[in-house]
Amino acid sequence: MKDITKMSDDFDRWYTDVVRKAELADWSGVRGMMVVRPYGWAMWEAIQRAFDDMIKESGHENWAFPLLIPRELLVKEAEHIEGFGPEVAWVTKAGAAMEELEEPLAVRPTSETIIGHIIRRYIQSHRDLPKLTNQWNSVVRWEMRSRLFLRSREFWWQEGHTFHASAKEAIEEADLILGYYRSVAEDWLAVPVLVGKKSPAETFPGAVHTLTLEGLMRDGLALQMGTSHYFGQNFARAYDISFSNKDNERELCYSTSWGISTRMVGAIVMAHGDDSGLIVPPKVAPVQVVVVPIFRDDASRAKVEAFINQWSPQLKQHGIRFRVDWRDERPGDKYAHWELKGVPLRLNVGARDVDAAQVELVDRLSRERRALLVSGIATALTSELERFQKRLFERAQEYQRANTVELGTLDEVVSHFRSRGGFAWVEWCGDEAEEARLKADSGGVTIRTIDEHAKPSGKCFVCGQPAKYRVALAKAY
RNA sequence: CGGGGAGUAGCGCAGCCCGGUAGCGCACUUGACUGGGGGUCAAGUGGUCGCGGGUUCAAAUCCCGCCUCCCCGACCA
Fold first, then answer.
1. A16 touches strand B (CB under 7 A)
2. DSSP A426
3. Separation of alpha carbons A192 and A395, rounded Å
4. What are phi and psi of A250, to 5 degrees?
5. A316 touches strand B (CB under 7 A)
6. Which residues lie across from A163 on neighbouring strands?
7. Does the CB of A146 fall within 7 Å of any strand B atom?
8. What confidence tens digit (pLDDT) does each residue in A158-183 have?
9. In chain A, domain spans
10. What is the CATH number of domain A282-391?
C-alpha cells in the first residue's frame, strides 16, 4: 500500500504500481491478456454510459457482430489487411482432436470487414441510409509488448461503423463523433485534448482520413485517446456495399468508423495521478465521496453511526456515489487507501463533529481540511464535486499550456525533445519523407495531429519551403 | 520478434554454486490494548518451490523442453 514508486523516480513503474494497487487491472497469466477489475471496469462503464447516451441521441444503434472473421473477408481491402496483418490472431484448429480448419478464422482486430460484408444485406435503397451501427466488444491484436490499459493483446472498446449516401454526410459523421470524443475526454475525464487530422503516415489502414484526439500525460508523452475515420468509398468498393440513389442509379456507400477503448482508463491514471496514487474525475469516479467514521468504542461508534445515518440518505437521493468505510482499520490507513484509489472527496466524521453537527471535508487535490455543516450537505457536496471536476480540468489545461511550445526548425525540434516532453507546434510542407526523417532524427517524435483550422504562412520546419500545415509534434505512447 | 534478467506462501525476497526436514520480512487470522494521517503486544494459518520430462537411493537445488513476468530495442488503439 505504501510502496508505490515515486512518479519522479520511474514513471512507468509508478503507473504499473498505481494500476495494480488501486485495483484497476492486473495481468492474467496469459501473455498480454489483461484482467480489468471492478474498480477499473466501473470507470469504463461510466465512460460507456456517457458515450452511449451521446450516440443514441443522434440515432445510432448497437449491434453485435461476430468475433471470428473468415480469411477471405479480411483480406479484401488491400491497405487494411496490410496494416493489420502483422497483429492478427488466427483460429486454425477446433475440437478435442484439434482438427485443422479448412479456412482459418481471424479473431477480429477490428470489424470493418465483417460488418461491411454483413451490412450490405440491409442496404438496398437510399431510404435505408444512413445506417448508423455501433458495437461494444473486445478485440484482439497480437502485440509484442504490453502495458496495462495502454497496450494489451485484448482490449475493450466500442467500434462504430456508419454508412451514408453522400461523402459530405459521412465526413460530417466522422466530425460529429470526434466532437463526442472530445466531450468524453474533456467534460468527463477532465483531460484536455488536441483534436485534428492525422498525417498520411498515421492514417488508419484503408481510410481517406483519420481524425484523432491527443492528450498529454504527466510524463510529457502524448496519448492517442480515440480516432474517427472517414473511408470514402474504399470499404464499400471492397465489400460491394451499394444502394439505389434517388435517380435509381447504383452507387457505392460512403462509410466511417470510430473507436475509443479502455485505454481511456489509462489516460485517467496518467493525466491526473500523483505520488499518492490516482485522482479520479468525479463524473467517472466509482466512489465520489467516502466517509471515514472515527470512533474508539462501541458507544462512540454508535453515536457516529447514528449521525451519519441522519444525513447520508440525502446523498443517495442527490445521486452522489458514496461509501461509508466501516472496515476495522485505523483512520490513517483508510485515508491512504482512498487517496490511492483517487476518491475526490473524503468526509472524516468523529464525535467532535457530531457535537458540532458538521463533518470534516478533505479533497484529493488540495488535501485541505475544512468543516462542512450537515445542514444542506448533499447540495454542498454536489457543488463541491462539480468544482472538483472543473479544478481538475483546469489543472490539466495549465499543465498542457506549460508544456506546449512553438518551434521553427528540425534542429530546434531535436534539441527541444532531447530534454523535454510535451507538444511542439511547427509548420510543415506535407512531405512524407520528411515525416520519417523527423522520427529518425529526433528519436521518436511524431506528428500527432494537424490543426485543420490554421492557415500557415511560414516555412516548413524541415525543408524551408512554404508550409501547408500547422502540426503538433510529440513523443507518444 | 531480437538482446538481457527473473519465476520459492497474497506481496517482497533468502536458500540453488556444493542434491538430503522449505525459511525470513510484510500481509492475513484470533485476542488484548489502541483509534482525528499509514499502531503495539501475543498466539496462529498459509507452499503441487512456474509446468512437463530426465539424472539420482534422494531434486527448489543438476540436465532438456515449454510457459509466464520484468528491462532494453524494432512494430502498435
1. yes
2. E
3. 10
4. -75, 135
5. no
6. A131, A255
7. yes
8. 999 999 999 999 999 999 999 999 99
9. 11-272, 282-391, 404-475
10. 3.40.50.800
Helices A167-183 & A38-57 angle (0-180, nearest 10): 140
Instruction: Tell me the per-residue pLDDT of A102-112, one tens digit each, with 9 for 90 and over.
Output: 889 999 999 99
b/e string for A166-197 if b means 16 or more Cβ within 10 A? eeeebbebbebbbebbbebbbebbbbbbbbbb
- Between CA A249 and CA A465 the distance in angstroms is 45
C-alpha distances (whole Å) from A395 to each of A218, A368, A388, A398, A408 are 11, 17, 10, 5, 28
Tell me the pLDDT band of A1, cut-offs 50, 70 and 90: very low
d(CA A25, CA A42): 11
User: What's phi and psi for A42, nearest 5 deg?
Assistant: -60, -35
Question: What is the CATH topology of the domain spanning A11-272?
Answer: BirA Bifunctional Protein; domain 2 (3.30.930)
Pick the closest to residue A279 from A149, A395, A194 (CA basis). A395
User: C-alpha grid cell for residue A12?
Assistant: 512507468
- A451-to-A59, A181, A227, A345, A396 alpha-carbon distances in Å: 29, 17, 15, 37, 20
Strand B nucleotides, any atom under 7 Å from protein beta carbons: they are 1, 34-39, 67-77
Return the half-sphere exposure (C-beta side, CA atoms, 13 A cut-off) of residue A439: 11
**What's the CATH number for A404-475?**
3.30.110.30
Cis peptide before A130 (omega within 30 of 0): yes
Residue A298 CA distance to nucleotide B44 C1' (Å): 27
Please check whether strand B approaches the CB of A21 to within 7 Å.
Answer: no
Residue A6: pLDDT above 90?
no
**pLDDT higher than 50, residue A67:** yes
Q: What is the DSSP letter of A376?
A: T
Establish whether the CB of A430 is closer than 7 Å to any nucleic acid atom in strand B.
no
